[in-house]
Task: structure prediction
Amino acid sequence: MLLKNVKPVSNTHKGKDTVDIRIEEGMIKEIGSGLKAVKGEESHDLKGAYVSPGWMDMHVHLREPGFEHKETTKTGCDAAAFGGFTAVACMPNTKPATHTRDVVEYIIKKAEKLPVDVHPIACVTKERKGESIAEMADMKEGGAVAFSDDGDPVYDSQVMRVALEYSSMLGMPIINHEEDLALSRPGHMNEGKVSTRLGLDGTPGIAEEVMIARDILLAEYTGGHIHVAHISTKEGVDLVRQAKKKGIKVTTEVCAHHFDLTDEEIDRTNFNTNFKMHPPLRTQEDVDAMVEGLVDGTIDAICTDHAPHAIEEKEVEFMYAPNGIIGLETAWPISNKRLFQTKKLDLQQLMDKLVYKPREILKLEIPEIKKGATANLTFFNTDEEWTFTPNNVRSKSKNSPYLNEKLTGRAVGIFNKGQLVLNELR
Result:
């Protein structure tokens, strides 16, 4: 296969030069200018699109097993490919929960022929109940890349201490959903001026920050690696910033919607439940802090927390709707708008958040653009204007706050596991 007229962007390429890439048997055979297709070779002109090593989203919910009415491994990977991701790490709040090796292996098996690498994140505790540690070492041998009870925090401090000690021996991070339940429930949005105006119970930022502070202290005490999931508050970012300065093993991620949208959207859209997620949309000050954290390196990775819900689950009164939105298909245009077009980050810095840091945190092999490397590639642009209509949703669910929005920048396609996927708008 010959992929023509692409501009490489990586930690060694700045996206300035246009090249052609020849692939044979899933490997990069040749990189050069003006390459000619040989007899029997499939050729695609990508018309000046950028090409980077394949992106990774380290926080998604594929819903399988147990909730296939929301999403399946196949439809989730379709959404990932449309969004430019060649790899995802999926959370364990499935049914049964991913708390035993057989479930880990089942998830890997379901994805083995798909063009997206699926890396299961296994439970910290049995059945995600927060009471006793799951069989971590066995699940690592089965293919788990990290541990989390996402959807719920590991609430018991002693359990978290033991979890960090065990995960340290295995060289893997604990990814915690940072939420003090006593402070947060029964909140339906961010606690503040907007929630007061709308008459909705709110979840204050302090509920997130208290747990972040606890986990940082436990990581310092145990020497373990804590990864703060979907960070959303200004003070939370500052806690991570100070911990990193002290040399504590803490990393974090931010969802694209948390550096784009605020709680005012709930009022503006008249309680549209596609703006309900957890952690909730916060204030403009928090949004600005997310961008600042990405710029100064406090926030390591961009993720989506892709959380599909069926239409009948979301089309209810706001307080009864489940938390979560889909995000794989729209992460790039949001990042492009808020970070690249505003010149907060250049393309190389953005690739660090989308390619390198997620895999470094999970200790996965990082793809490269060089002769002899396995072809694991994402093709994208920064200037194409398009509309995210329901027809363009590849996820099985359509619970996105960006439906029918005009977006700029699109993932053109991916190449991974010997498979080329070119995305066409519908």
Notes: Residues 2-51+371-422 form a domain with the Urease, subunit C; domain 1 fold (CATH 2.30.40.10). The two ends are 25 Å apart (CA to CA).
